[in-house]
Design a protein that fits this description.
By secondary structure, this protein is an alpha/beta fold. 42% of the residues lie in helices and 8% in strands. The chain contains 15 helices and 5 strands. Strand 3, helix 11 and strand 4 form a beta-alpha-beta unit. The longest helix has 17 residues.
Length: 338
């Protein structure tokens, strides 16, 4: 019927009474906080964008407080418009080599409290090899596309169907197996730092804990440099598991929900719409610029792939060599958020 079409980008639709009630209950807002949310609703009435919703706003509130939420939200919207981010899900086609070596995904099943589990295999990701073969801008574009998939993907609909509620917080499992001096190259750390800043600025989300597993000896030296990338609040949520990492993970989740790259006896899978393969590994020499020579067979790159393009620095490097490398880094530090 004429005149009955609903503008799903309008504040009236996105901030409807049922949606507000759902968010207030999910976040267990006090009467005072509920009033602050309604004030933000009024202030943002002129922002016609699909991301102008109480769900998104609460992400900013949970990571920076009510005072800065509006400013940070408006900055995010302008960034999306300036960089045409809204079109990524329909227009961007990820390179198969980058996709098969992303090593990040939400898992199909959840932690003990019914919240999502996000797995990232930082040690298996060959950022140095990717930077050698792709422009930095393309890798960053891919990373943004991945975040769009994580924020808008089919896995969210599946989560709400199974749990009967939206996502409030997540458990992060960060795997550092195979971390080496390749990961400590200034270009790699600089890219990692830039990506973290982008995530903090434009994709804030309430992480309730980050469990760091299988950290090799070299991590002690790397941590001296990279800990400055994290705010004190983020550091307070980190749990460093010892060698019996499955026991630590078992405190927070059924370890059977983990994939075999983490738990050899696990049966876990990545969530619907997430990158399926998490093997990672160093990219072989024969794969050229832009991924030429790579055949996406749906299995990613295993850790036992052909000789890599750089085997001169690995976990066996001496403590003196690592300290010399770390001392030689000259990164522009991005101030961490409080």
């Amino acid at each position: 019927m004429p005149g009955t079409d609903v503008d799903k980008t309008s504040p009236e639709y996105l901030w409807s009474e049922p949606k507000m009630k759902e968010v207030i209950e999910l976040w267990e807002l006090t009467p005072s906080d509920t009033q602050k949310l309604f004030i933000l609703k009024a202030k943002l009435k002129n922002v016609h964008h699909l991301w102008n919703s109480p769900d998104v706003i609460m992400g900013f509130v949970s990571t920076g407080g009510w005072e800065t939420a509006e400013q940070r939200f408006r900055k995010m919207i302008q960034w999306r418009l300036d960089n045409k981010v809204d079109a990524l899900l329909t227009e961007f086609k990820p390179n198969p080599l980058i996709l098969d070596n992303s090593c990040v995904a939400f898992l199909k099943n959840y932690d003990h409290q019914g919240d999502p589990i996000y797995l990232e295999r930082g040690g298996a990701l060959d950022v140095k090899g990717l930077l050698k073969r792709f422009p930095r801008e393309e890798l960053m574009r891919h990373a943004i596309w991945l975040r769009e998939v994580q924020c808008n993907g089919a896995w969210l609909d599946e989560y709400e169907r199974r749990q009967g509620r939206g996502v409030r917080s997540i458990t992060v499992v960060y795997d550092l197996k195979d971390l080496s001096t390749r990961h400590l190259h200034p270009n790699v750390l600089g890219f990692f730092q830039e990506l973290m800043q982008l995530t903090d600025d434009y994709y804030p989300g309430p992480i309730k804990r980050m469990i760091i597993i299988r950290a090799p000896h070299i991590f002690r030296f790397a941590w001296k440099t990279i800990k400055g990338f994290f705010s004190e609040e983020s550091q307070s949520k980190m749990i460093f598991a010892d060698s019996d990492y499955l026991a630590e993970l078992g405190k927070w989740m059924d370890v059977d929900v983990l994939p075999q790259c983490i738990n050899p006896d696990g049966h876990g899978e990545t969530a619907i719409g997430m990158p399926k393969y998490m093997q990672g590994g160093q990219i072989p020499d024969h794969i050229g610029e832009g991924g030429v020579g790579y055949h996406a067979v749906g299995s990613g790159l295993s850790e036992a792939s052909s000789p890599a393009d750089d085997s001169s620095t690995d976990e066996s490097a001496s403590e003196e060599e690592v300290e010399q490398l770390m001392a030689g880094l000259h990164l522009t530090q991005v101030p961490a958020k409080a």
